Amino acid sequence: MALGLPRPHRFDVYVAAAGLLGGLLVWAIGLGTRPAHEPIVLLGGDWVILLPLAVTAGCELLRRTAPRTAVLAGTAALVADTITQGNLFTILMYTDLMYAAVLYGPPSAARRIPWITGLLTAAGALVPFAVWRVPEALLIGVAVGVVSFAPAATGLIVRNHRDAADAALLRAEQTALLAEMDRTQAVTAERARMARELHDMVANHLSAIAIHSTAALSLDDPAVSRDALGVIRENSVAGLAEMRRLIGILRDGGRQPAATPTLEGLPALVDGARANGLDVVLDNTLPDADAVPAPVELAAYRIVQESLTNALKHASPGRVTVTLARRQDALTVTVTSPYGDRAGPRAPGSGAGLVGMRERTALLGGGFEAGPARDPASADGTLWTVHATLPLADSAQGDPA
Hints:
By secondary structure, the protein is α+β, with helices and mostly antiparallel strands.
């Protein structure tokens, strides 16, 4: 099976071709980096200069895909170039290999190469000076620093700037993502709030309309039909008014309007339920309604409203009891209605009412329970009980709508 070699980047191909052509040009005109008669020149012959040049140009093809391999092979080619007359483009391409090894290599190589080349630069300056005791010996360290340490340090600086830019871009993307998540959550919460408000404001009136229209259609009695039509008209007008109020909320950007239902409106709510045919008793033992925060008042009102709507649709004949009391630092709302076997509800329902009541209670940090329970006043009777505990403390800033 053939081994897949990394395909060089197009820019690396251009760099390698330019370096090779430049090296061939200076070789053709006989320009070397040192005279042929110097003692360091161990390999004579014009063609020998081309071997390190070709190897270094080949390493340029790997400067991005395999930077460590390229710099190691390039170092060997540079050592070979120092014992020939030398080629300027071999040195230039090696500096690029050192730069690319730091910029494109792994983080460990990016940290180590500048330190290694820095130590080699210091050693290249101090050791020859200590041996020969002439100032010119320091130029060896300068040459080593220009060829190795300077491009490595440049690559490190560029890499740090690139990493910082990438980190800033990542933080910006994360911030945008968090902002979008917050916006989505806010939209979802607002939709849920408006859904609860719509359900609680309109469901009661529509349920009464459905029940009385069914009675008017099923009974051939003009008096009953006339009474049913009167109730239907009253609930239609009230429902239309509630719908206009909801439209006003939407037009104001979802802000809660000033005319918010309060506990003082419970008697009128109970009277409306009685007009729709329920036998309702209100037991309100709150000593001071003004001491109840507005969010708690609205939640309690909506829970009672939805409970009466459910009783109108599902309860068996009998008395419905609404009880409000204060227990320590919480307002308790309890609505009980007869619960028994029925052929079916008198008006259709979606089950969203219990969900809305539970959500309102949870938003205030309270507790909610709903279900059948044994009637202590009857040997075989069963009640459907809705019980909500709404904390009074830290509720002023809440919004149960």
